[in-house]
Amino acid sequence: MSDVQKAIADVTERIRERSRSSRETYLERLRARAAQGPKRSRLSCGNLAHGFAACGPSDKAELMGDEAPNLGIITAYNDMLSAHQPFERFPALIKEAAREAGGVAQVAGGVPAMCDGVTQGQAGMELSLFSRDVIAMAAGIGLSHDMFDAAVYLGVCDKIVPGLVIAALTFGHLPAVFIPAGPMTTGLPNDEKARIRQLYAEGKIGRDELLKAESASYHGPGTCTFYGTANSNQMLMEFMGLHMPGASFVNPNTPLRDALTKEATKRALAITALGNEFTPVGEMIDERSIVNSVVGLHATGGSTNHTIHLIAMAAAAGIKLTWQDISDLSDATPLLARVYPNGLADVNHFHAAGGLGFMIRELADAGLLHRDVRTVFGQGLEPYMVEAKLEGDTVKRVPAPEKSHDEKVLAPISKPFQPNGGLKMLTGNLGKAVIKISAVKPDRQVIEAPAVVFHGQDELQEAFRKGELEKDFVAVIRFQGPKANGMPELHKLTPALGVLQDRGYKVALVTDGRMSGASGKVPAAIHVTPEALDGGPIGKVLNGDMVRVDAIEGTLEVLVPAAEFEARTAATADLSANAHGTGRELFETFRRVAGPADEGASVFA
């Protein structure tokens, strides 16, 4: 680790020591399974016949032997969601590329893909976090047939990619390549979208005008263009070496996008145990890969949801990541991107300015990334310091630009937007929480004000409509954790709280729920743990208690004498309405066994 700064090396070593036993156990199991070789050759004739019964004659002939690699496709395709609709064409492209490379590809299984954008503020959002673990399970079922020598994963959005990574690492003896669909083209500018949302929240425009603006923003195939969890996912896959270099932010349905998909297929087949570059993903992803991904999260001002997902993803490989690790890496990592909600640009502007290739090179040259990691492309991060281009039908790569094409969007390491990533852990007598301040003005990073307590976001919305929140206050929204109601995002609150902040009031949010990958200008202490339903101290806060959210010192406190606070009886809440409807009754077991947010909020032990 001599090529990285001491702060990065220290956190990496701390993770390695903490994870030594669990990582060794994981690798022992992985290597034992890999040593068995391709399982397909040991299936009974009846098993194998079932596995290729629907294949064409040439694919069937290949699968009858033991030499042609078979690629499993795990897809999150559906045609309701813009980010996943482009995947409809991918299996045919992948199968064609596999045949060109002397292999076979089969769709091993589909996984659900829900959209937080559709379910924001709706009952369906209470299934969102748990969908990550369902996706991991569904992918596991697809791969359980043991027909495959490698897998490619087609997914983009919020919980889908983390769930697919958990599955890939669970089947860590197989190589894994992630294939993105890319962002939609630029629509209505993000600042204009935010302005119209606030006007609607204030009652100054109607639903027709709001819907027109939203439709102009979310207007075609591809990922939403703001820098929320979906695009943070794509960044993570590139920083972890699970994408082909330069693949993350190429628009859907373009010749370059298709060429990258075919290239990824051929690479997945090249790194199976049948070839000379065997790269099982569980060996490839190690502590250095995880640290690189966290550094990428901070440098880009990425989604707060990944303070949960990265912990769960790392755990699937026997690696124990903590909020303290994430916070310490934030202190060491400068912010190099201004993409909405941390700026006015979208991911297309970021990509045009030099994108991830430029950023990876800047961070690596400054000693903030481990260069010596393994990737699906080979050894080391250097191949990712590039832009992907198309020459004829072939992907070519050129070095990332020496200078950013737009330093208002993508800054060099010598002139960062701020010296740290703006994502911190808070601790105090209310428990632990995380806060993202990359878009919060300095004079709003410490808020001390009376608590106004709510047991749901609809209660706050109603109080806002009645004019009861025209004052300084800290909104304490509890019973929103994994065990209570699946930990929904509370992004629906952003316009109302933003309006109040713009009117000059000191406003902050404290919640055991999530805020969003689009956490913005209002200071929000989120993922508070222990949650209220687990007996967390957030359940003892009363209206009028002074609460201090201090993102500078990293503290979250209710300013009540310790003896008085300890003697209080925690509040209770009637959560029966959260137990049914929109499929919520199917997830009762998940709510009961879900772990705390700082351990990944997972249903897996």
UniProtKB/TrEMBL annotation:
Residues 408-601 form the Dihydroxy-acid/6-phosphogluconate dehydratase C-terminal domain. Its cofactor is [4Fe-4S] cluster. Keywords: 4Fe-4S, Carbohydrate metabolism, Gluconate utilization, Iron, Iron-sulfur, Lyase, Metal-binding. Pfam families: ILV_EDD_C, ILVD_EDD_N. GO terms for cellular component: cytosol. GO terms for biological process: D-gluconate metabolic process; Entner-Doudoroff pathway through 6-phosphogluconate. Gene3D superfamilies: IlvD/EDD C-terminal domain-like. The keyword Lyase applies. Residues 69-382 form the Dihydroxy-acid/6-phosphogluconate dehydratase N-terminal domain. Its EC number is 4.2.1.12. One of its GO terms (molecular function) is phosphogluconate dehydratase activity. [4Fe-4S] cluster binds at residues 157, 224. PROSITE patterns: ILVD_EDD_1 (PS00886), ILVD_EDD_2 (PS00887). It catalyses: 6-phospho-D-gluconate = 2-dehydro-3-deoxy-6-phospho-D-gluconate + H2O. PANTHER family: D-XYLONATE DEHYDRATASE, PHOSPHOGLUCONATE DEHYDRATASE. Belongs to the IlvD/Edd family. Catalyzes the dehydration of 6-phospho-D-gluconate to 2-dehydro-3-deoxy-6-phospho-D-gluconate. This is Phosphogluconate dehydratase. It comes from Oricola thermophila. The lineage of its organism: Bacteria, Pseudomonadati, Pseudomonadota, Alphaproteobacteria, Hyphomicrobiales.
